[in-house]
Write a structure and sequence with these properties.
Layout: E1 2-7, H1 18-28, E2 30-36, H2 40-52, E3 57-61, H3 75-85, E4 90-97, H4 105-122, E5 126-131, H5 134-143, E6 151-154, H6 160-168, E7 171-175, H7 185-193, E8 199-201, H8 235-245, H9 250-266
Parallel strand pairs: 1-2, 2-3, 3-4, 4-5, 5-6, 6-7, 7-8
Helix pairs in contact: 2-3, 8-9
């Protein structure tokens, strides 16, 4: 059974209920997922999903760099509250992004720094988004207090020398089905050659739609827009393709990525654990 290291199950882009999505995920072979918040306005929805599905939805609360310019003054206090209420939750999705013009980097940076420092203080797993800001991210990692090796770079798309620097900082990397597209060949090759102890798999649903051959259908697909959301159950077929590229069986890669997930999420290699409980105190 696969573990989806990064998605947004709370997204309003999903017309299906969380129960339907999770049932399809588990039927496909995906046992659990991390649902990442992106702004204080969706943290309650993430918390509700985790409370309703405690053995299959692991919550992460964070401010995405695209949302860094639209925050209430008490956002950090609210983040602390959610983390205190969910002692097994991660912090994410946070990051830096120069692919977008707004908000500018000087707005993104203090939000990123505050969340990083909170992750260090509480020793929580951290999920980072980065686009076209790799040197800025590495500079921040050098300046900020070191995180104890529980950093996930989701959908890594940087150059090989950046990957080496991130590896030196104890980062792990999650890859999704969009990397199976031919235009992503360079990144797919990096997947094939990177150290297996650093690899996780993700769907990033409803984003990062994989090629058609790997997409899990939604009920009433004909009613969806031309570019439908990525179903989180698509991860199973995509991850199987990743296994083939590494010369592994699906079961072998699932065992490797699940062990890596537990080491990142819990700081343990107990990949035989069937459940990660994260109920409120």
């Amino acid at each position: 059974m696969w573990i989806d290291a990064h998605n947004h199950l709370q997204s309003p882009r999903f017309a299906a209920s969380s129960h339907e999505l999770l049932a399809a995920m588990q039927a496909s072979g995906v046992s659990a997922c991390v649902a990442n918040g992106t702004h204080p306005t969706d943290w309650e929805n993430v918390a509700a999903l985790a409370g309703k599905h405690p053995d299959s939805v692991f919550p992460a609360f964070g401010v995405h760099p695209w949302q860094a310019g639209e925050l209430p003054v008490d956002w950090l206090e609210k983040l602390r509250h959610h983390l205190a209420s969910h002692p097994m939750a991660g912090i994410g999705e946070i990051g830096l992004d120069l692919w977008v013009d707004e908000p500018p980097l000087h707005i993104q940076l203090p939000v990123f720094r505050s969340q990083w420092e909170l992750a260090v203080e509480l020793n929580r797993p951290l999920t980072i988004h980065c686009l076209r800001a790799w040197s800025e991210l590495l500079d921040e990692m050098d300046r900020l207090p070191p995180h104890p090796g529980r950093i996930l770079i989701h959908a890594f798309g940087g150059p090989p020398d950046t990957a080496e620097r991130l590896l030196e900082n104890g980062c792990v990397f999650s890859f999704n089905g969009a990397f199976l597209a031919r235009r992503k060949r360079r990144l797919f090759d990096w997947w094939r050659l990177s150290p297996k102890e650093t690899l996780l798999v993700e769907s990033d649903a409803p984003d990062m739609l994989p090629p058609q051959a790997y997409r899990h259908p939604f009920p009433n697909d004909s009613a969806l827009p031309d570019t439908p959301p990525n179903h989180p159950a698509s991860l199973a077929a995509c991850a199987t393709a990743f296994a083939t590229a590494r010369g592994l069986t699906a079961a072998e890669l699932a065992a490797i990525t699940n062990a890596n997930f537990h080491r990142w999420w819990l700081g343990t290699c107990d990949a035989n654990s069937q459940h990660i409980h994260h109920s409120t105190p």
